[in-house]
Amino acid sequence: MTTRLEAPVRPRQAEAVAVRGVTRRFGPVTALEGFDLEVRDGEVVAIVGPSGCGKSTLLELIAGIQRPDEGELVVTGSAAYMPQRDLLLPWRDAVGNAALALESAGVPRREARRRAAPMFERLGLGQFEQSRPHELSGGMRQRVAFLRTLLAGRPLLLLDEPFGALDAITRSAMQDWLAGALQAEPRTVLLVTHDVTEALLLADRVVVLSPRPGRVLTELCVDLARPRVRRELVGDPAFAEFERRALEALGC
Amino acid sequence: MTTRLEAPVRPRQAEAVAVRGVTRRFGPVTALEGFDLEVRDGEVVAIVGPSGCGKSTLLELIAGIQRPDEGELVVTGSAAYMPQRDLLLPWRDAVGNAALALESAGVPRREARRRAAPMFERLGLGQFEQSRPHELSGGMRQRVAFLRTLLAGRPLLLLDEPFGALDAITRSAMQDWLAGALQAEPRTVLLVTHDVTEALLLADRVVVLSPRPGRVLTELCVDLARPRVRRELVGDPAFAEFERRALEALGC
Amino acid sequence: GERKERTGPNGTERLQLMLDFFPNADHTPIYAAQAGGHFKDLGLDVQVRAPADPAAPLRQAAAGRVDLALSYEPEVIRARDKGVDVVAVGALVQQPLTSIISLPDAGIRTPKDLRGKKVGTAGIDYQSAFLQAILQKAGVDPAGVMERNVGFDLNPALLTKKVDATLGSFWNYEGIDLRLKKRNPQVIRVDKAGVPTYDELVFVASSKTVKEKGDAIRGFLGAIARGVRDLRANPKKGLDALLAANRDLDPRLQSEVLKVTLPLYAPPAGRPFGWQEPTEWSAFGKFMRDSGLIQKGAGGAFTNDLLPGGGL
Amino acid sequence: MLKRYLPTALLLLAAIGAWQAVASLGSVDDLTLASPVETVRALRDDSSLLFDNTLTTLWEVLLGLVIAVALGAGAAVVMHVVRPLRDAAYPLLIASQAVPIVVVAPLLILAFDYGIGPKIAIVALICFFPVTVNLLDGLRGVEPELLKLMRSLGASRLAMLWKVELPWALPNLFSGLRIAATVSVIGAVFGEWAGADNGLGRLVLLGINQLETPRVYAGVVILTVMALALFVLVSLAERAAVPWSRREVRS
Amino acid sequence: MLKRYLPTALLLLAAIGAWQAVASLGSVDDLTLASPVETVRALRDDSSLLFDNTLTTLWEVLLGLVIAVALGAGAAVVMHVVRPLRDAAYPLLIASQAVPIVVVAPLLILAFDYGIGPKIAIVALICFFPVTVNLLDGLRGVEPELLKLMRSLGASRLAMLWKVELPWALPNLFSGLRIAATVSVIGAVFGEWAGADNGLGRLVLLGINQLETPRVYAGVVILTVMALALFVLVSLAERAAVPWSRREVRS
Ligand SMILES: Nc1ncnc2c1ncn2[C@@H]1O[C@H](COP(=O)(O)OP(=O)(O)OP(=O)(O)O)[C@@H](O)[C@H]1O
Ligand SMILES: Nc1ncnc2c1ncn2[C@@H]1O[C@H](COP(=O)(O)OP(=O)(O)OP(=O)(O)O)[C@@H](O)[C@H]1O
Ligand SMILES: [Mg+2]
Ligand SMILES: [Mg+2]
Question: What is the mean pLDDT of chain D?
């Protein structure tokens, strides 16, 4: 991908992603139309919007898997994409699948597995390192796919509903874990989610999309202090206000 | 499946599902152990529990797709199973996939499609009747799979996270729609979900499972009035209490 | 097919011979010569190999990829006519072996009996010409006889009764074989039924090879002659050599075949072994031309210059 | 479009060029190898002869193929549904492939007499095996989750087969068809060697015996084109029948 | 275990029974069709002869197969990666299947001289096509989403091939191997007809030529067993190499 030369919109920080007037059509269907979005380096942006409004398409465009029909896309640095479907390889065990990204980056197989294995305990997948995908539960598969994406070690993460198949508790554990990881080593994150609470927990900015064709309806700059602990936030009126506005924008 | 002759536990209503001391092992992993559950005819039971605790396994056991290693399973009437993965047939368009259940029940293809088509509008899938699965968004695929299950027209519905991939608004629309449908023609429903609110909105009873091996931790009899409208419930203290107890049981 | 080294062990000259078919009793003299050490005595090292298909020997010889090949007089004449540069350098079998063979039920004793019958051939043009000639001589209307191409499996066609008779099998091989198998076949030799006589099996070489290796070829034919002589004295020895080299041959059949074939190696009285009778060759050439099988004659199709001299 | 076929054309030209070179090199005698020029001349001179024989062979090939596909697909489906039958019948199928044709020919003659019968039989014999193996393997490879789903929907065995397993295995079936279509031609040639009054196989064989090498090569060229055409036909059929496959990647 | 092979045994017995019946029916000349009893007798009497020839043929088959698989797989992969090459080379591959062996044989002999060379070449020629077609189709059938994912992970073309496409296509490859293994035997037989000093093919042909029908059938039985053994071997290899396939359904 190219890097742009003009002065960045926000002088403070370099820009990681810039989507300008992008349109993506599939035959009669227009997924995205004249879509604009800019993501600063190290920023965590959550994207919420009605089903079929073009969220996954947006991520695939930024990941460079799809090409826009119109508009300009500027992405600085390489991205790791976590697709909505886990897409685990049936012939590899869990660790092997998690290590796929590393291997693709040229790390030898054994070394890659060695690096991937320790994460399993932390994600509550202990004892399932050697299980094949069809032996895993839905949520386990999703966590393996998430791990695969993180291990790619890219500066830009594109996560399409990373925790959609997880129960409340496992999910919040994962959220806290991710938040911690991002605190430790900041990365630019684009997070597609259906869970407004999740968005507010993790994101610096929440972008609410309109129904197809997807356009940006509202942007909420979530200036809540970090680390954000669910327990505390639930009571926090500021949080409640954010939640109300987000849901309102969505039309709930 | 057999029907049991002894007096039912709850004399008021006939029993649709009875799971008694069922254990299901996968090699070293014990998914369910000495599991007991009884579901009355026409009852809507939500099942929540940590990822990997055996929810999908339970549904597959009741659907008759898997066999228990120990224990007794009694299911009255036939069940329609909605798996966690949508499992749409890539060579059929959306309507064709939705009609699959009807066709399997012996309805001629054209007739089956004729019956399935009108539902698309209502589920917000208008104009996508002829789209192939890979042309659908994640949420759309899930709705098609849901439709396929409903159209099977079985007295017992086994739904494994039917709305997991849907955004807040589409999801609540679907929930209301389902609630309405069940009001119109009552069916027995076993609903696996990660969304406690969803469970409380739809279910007569919420069963909270322990981490693997899955056992019943708590049962909440949700005696809230129907129809339950999200807006009203949010404020309702009784509802809040249920929510607190459920999350507490889950360990949040 | 790179050029092989021209010399064999201890300075002997190497000759490569391609048979007309898989080894069988007709080839016994060659094996007898090997066994008698006659090739070595004459400073030759002869390699024998089987062909890829019936047409291969001529082609390989013409191409000089083998020095000598066993072929059939009609094939040689036709090859010459096509401008293929091969020459018959000596006859191994001095008579036609091709024959009409039928089973008793068909009741075909003479060519006349062919009237209204089905005759299976291998679809080889000159054998069809044989049939026509035979019918003509017997005064049978060709229209009343159905010729049918049954490929190379003449016997199966006969035994499955899909044809009443076959034209193309050798009376000294398939004929004997069927007799041994108690099918008491009726055999009509083509040369007894109106086809001019010819030499069934002849050694051929390209004229280039003839020029370059004339002496070696002469030596070869001489050795074969001695082989035949040995066979007359003691058929067993040569036969054993053949069977030893080809374990999958049926000893009983081969010895029977050899018995009836042995006389056929002999040249006419007062002629050297391998003699090819010019009058016969031209007569047969004429027959082929008249039957429209060739345009020119059989001129230069053979040479007797390389014969070792001396009869048997 | 043109660009798509350019490489083919180029390589073809290259191949023909090489062929011509080797042929006119002289190291190979022209009884063994006819040059493209001679071959083309033969194609022109014997055109009518070649044409008639081509029709015969083509007819044998098509009939044989149709039978092979019908039998092969049928066998695969039956063996897939009735497992013990599969265990039992497979060895026989394999046997059918291992028996040399000269051994089968007389038996076929017994069964069909001469004429077109044995040729079709041999074509079918050669062709049905790839179809069976590929389809069977395809049917066995169906995503098990899908079968579970169908079972839970109470689908009959037939419905399962018809609505899930066969569509799933269709691409494999077409792989088999591709192979069958290609080898069917050679099957017809062998068939004709077991005795025939016309057909390209016979023509080629006679050509070899009568040292008419150019005609032989003309025949071979036609046979090759025939095989190619059949292959392309199958591929087109596949594109029509398996529209869902690889839709994305193209976009 | 025993139960699994019972049907096979039964059907085999039935087949042999039928064979015996037809043979002893008398309507068929026993020079056309040898009975099982005669065949077994031949197997016993000619055992040493058969054994030696079997070794020769087996050797040809194995070498040919190995070469065919190597070439076939290689060709498929290369053609898959270099699309224009595929468009260009496919016609030639098909041609290679359509050329009658009697035409190829002399050329092969040109190339390899006599000896084992041409036989192996013919085996390879017959075997590599199923391997290529199946593997190629398998490679083309990979779930596009997976390729997208790999691309987004920045996998090299090689990594993509090695980690996703080849594993995915492995079952197809094995379908091809199954076919190749089975027809390889007949390939060796043809090869030996192009001139050989020993081998089962020659044995059978000479047997036919000498009306030694029982020996012919003995040879055929061995050839069949050989094909069967190879087929089973491939299937076992598949079970070892593709453990993930159909895991569920069995459970
Ligand atoms: N490959 C494709 N071919 C045709 N149409 C497509 C394709 N991919 C996406 N679409 C269409 O584009 C629109 C947006 O799809 P997308 O997957 O981006 O939605 P989404 O926002 O991710 O929805 P969800 O939240 O349900 O995943 C949908 O209407 C879908 O039908
Ligand atoms: N076919 C199988 N083979 C081996 N293990 C299996 C299989 N199916 C399920 N399991 C194991 O059984 C346990 C329960 O699986 P199940 O899918 O029922 O969990 P779940 O409650 O549905 O989890 P989730 O909420 O993540 O879907 C898991 O540990 C899983 O690894
Ligand atoms: Mg999406
Ligand atoms: Mg589950």
Answer: 85
Calculate how far, in angstroms, residue A199's C-alpha sits from the geometric centre of ligand 2: 28
Q: What is the distance between the alpha carbons of residues C41 and A114, in angstroms, rounded to a whole number?
A: 77
Q: What's the CA-to-centroid distance between C139 and ligand 3, angstroms?
A: 92
Q: What CA–CA distances, in Å, run from B51 to A195, B32, B139, B218, C147? A: 17, 13, 21, 17, 82
Task: Give contacts of B135 with chain A, Cβ < 8 Å.
Answer: 26
Cβ <8 Å between C149 and D106: no
- Nearest-Cα residue of chain C relative to residue E191: C52
Residue B214: closest CA among B77, B22, B7, B40: B22
In this prediction, residues A205-210 reach a mean pLDDT of: 94
Closest C-alpha among B169, B161, B163, B221 to residue B193: B161
Pairwise CA distance, residues A215 & A210, whole Å: 5
**How many whole angstroms separate alpha carbon D142 and alpha carbon D39?**
48
Query: What gap in Å lies between CA B125 and CA B145, rounded to an integer?
Result: 12
Query: Alpha-carbon distance D40 to A92, whole Å?
Result: 55
What is the spatial distance between Cα C224 and Cα C234, in angstroms, rounded to a whole number? 15
- How far, in Å, CA of D119 to CA of D101, rounded? 11
Nearest CA to ligand 2 atom 20: B52
Task: Please tell me the distance from the alpha carbon of residue A210 to that of residue D29, in angstroms, as a whole number.
Answer: 78
Strands (E) located in B54-128: 70-75, 79-82
Around ligand 2, the residues with Cβ closer than 6 Å are A 134-140, 167; B 26, 29, 31, 51-57, 84, 212; E 248
Minimal CA separation from D127 to chain C, in Å = 22
Convert the pLDDT of each residue in C262-284 to its tens digit: 999 999 888 999 999 999 999 99
Q: What SS3 string covers A82-115?
A: ECCCCCCCCCCCHHHHHCHHHHHCCCCHHHHHHH
Laid out side by side, the sheet with A70-75 consists of A29-40, A15-26, A70-75
Q: How far is CA A33 from the centre of its chain?
A: 21
> Interface pTM (ipTM) of the complex?
0.88
At C33 the pLDDT is 94
pLDDT tier, C34 (very low <50, low <70, confident <90, very high otherwise): very high
The number of C-alpha atoms within 13 Å of E193 and in the hemisphere containing its C-beta is 21
pLDDT tens for each residue of D176-233: 999 999 999 989 988 888 777 888 988 888 888 777 888 888 999 999 999 999 999 9
d(CA A82, CA D170): 31
CA distance D49 to chain E (A): 19
Q: With a cut of 70, list the residues of chain B below it in pLDDT.
A: 1-13, 252
Share of chain C above pLDDT 70, in %: 96
Chain A neighbors (3+ CB pairs < 8 Å) = B, E
Q: Do D182 and E94 touch (CB under 8 A)?
A: yes
Tell me the ligand closest to A193's alpha carbon: 1
Which chain A residue is nearest to residue E243, measuring alpha carbons?
A91
pLDDT at D85 over 90: no
Q: Which of B136, B141, B142, B144 to mutate to test the pocket of ligand 1 (most atoms within 8 A of CB)?
A: B136
Judged by 3 or more CB pairs under 8 A, whether A touches B is yes
C155, C174 Cβ separation under 8 angstroms = yes
Q: Which residues on chain A are in Cβ contact (under 8 Å) with B168?
A: 48, 194-196, 247, 250, 252
Are A47 and A191 within 8 A, CB to CB?
A: yes
Quick one: closest CA in C to D194, which residue? C151
| DSSP track, E180-245 | HHHHHHHHHHHHHHTS-SSSHHHHHHHHHHTT-HHHHHHHHHHHHHHHHHHHHHHHHHHHHH-TTT
Three-state SS at A230: helix
3-state SS, residue B39:
strand
Name the pTM for this structure: 0.90
- Measured from the CA of E248, which atom of ligand 2 is nearest? 1
